[in-house]
Amino acid sequence: MSNSVGTVDQSEIFEIFKKAGALLKGHFLLSSGLHSDIYFEKFQVLQHPEYVEILCRKLASLFRDDNVEIVVGPTTGGIIIAYEVAKNLKVRSIFAEPGDEGRIFKRGFDIKKGERTLIVDDILTTGGSIKEVIQLVKKHEGKIGGIGLLLDRSGGKVKFDYPLKALATTEVTNYRPEECPMCKRGEPLIKPGSRKIG
Question: What pTM was computed for the model?
Answer without folding.
Answer: 0.85
